[in-house]
Design goal:
Number of strands: 10
CATH class: Alpha Beta
Radius of gyration: 16 Å
Number of helices: 6
Bound molecules: S-adenosyl-L-homocysteine
CATH superfamily: Nucleoside phosphorylase domain
CATH architecture: 3-Layer(aba) Sandwich
Order of helices and strands: EHEEEHEEEHEHEHEH
Strand order of the largest sheet: 5-9-8-6-10
Structural class: alpha/beta
Number of domains: 1
Largest sheet: 5 strands, mixed, barrel
């Protein structure tokens, strides 16, 4: 079994590479891919760079070029739900693209013909995450994540995304990774630790908490890998 572990930024995969220790590095299509065997599982690890386009390229590459059969995403996000504070974890039950807009033709936000407003995550991986959370004594929220090519640092935009998609958190890659995995029939799991509240203080909060929140998410994802290997 080959498992992909993906982030968007170097900080999101650094704790994973550190834990794995030795790996083979391959450059492909402008990114570095790290391959290793860990607990008997073949891993391919990469950060895509920020946004929907780069994350689409990386997810597709991990599957089509490196042969990944499942994909776990680890990273940080802005909170919409007031239940979520910096450092809290959220698992996406389904994801949407909040900046996809052909509403001029009468379609809902996030929809294009032959697509869907939401893509659902793999239920088996979500179940596994519940076991991991209970073993770690952690509360992990399940909710909707909305993705777009915008760093949201604006209460009005955040509230609009929350009410339009019922979203609990927002970020810039999950929705596109979900589309790729769904199209290629690869089970996927998107985990995010909160770095900010997507409000006017978001960029300061993000800078202060990127590293610690990225680590929280990465540690959880590595526990998922352990569980998959059991
Ligand atoms: N500081 C970075 C830019 C970060 S963009 C730089 O200057 O290079 C934000 C990244 O974190 C994206 O990968 C996104 O998925 C996630 N994220 C965290 N908070 C976010 C928010 N409020 N809005 C959108 N994305 C957010």
């Amino acid at each position: 079994m080959k498992l992909a572990i993906m982030g968007a930024m170097p900080e999101e995969i650094a704790p994973i590479l550190e834990k794995i220790g030795t790996y083979k590095t391959t450059e492909y299509a402008g990114n570095k891919y790290y391959e290793a065997t860990y607990n008997g599982i073949d891993l391919v690890i990469a950060y895509s760079k920020i946004g929907k386009v780069f994350s689409t390229l990386t997810a597709a590459t991990m599957i089509e070029h490196f042969g990944a059969q499942k994909l776990l995403f680890s990273g940080v996000a802005g909170a919409i739900s007031s239940e979520l504070k910096v450092g809290d974890l959220i698992v996406a039950t389904k994801l949407s693209q909040h900046d996809l807009d052909i509403t001029a033709f009468g379609h809902p936000f996030g929809y294009v013909p032959e697509g869907a407003v939401f893509v659902e995550s793999d239920k088996t991986l979500i179940e596994l995450s519940k076991q991991v959370a209970s073993e770690m004594g952690l509360h992990v929220k399940e909710g909707i994540i909305a993705t777009g090519d915008q760093f949201v640092a604006n209460e009005e935009r955040k509230n609009w995304i929350g009410s339009t998609f019922g979203a609990d958190a927002l970020e810039m890659e999950g929705g596109s990774v979900a589309v790729v995995c769904n199209a290629l029939h690869v089970p996927f799991f998107i985990l995010r630790a909160i770095s900010d509240a997507a409000d006017m203080d978001a960029s300061f909060s993000f800078d202060a908490f990127l590293e610690s929140s990225a680590k929280t998410s990465a540690e959880f994802v590595m526990k998922m890998v352990d569980k998959i290997g059991e």
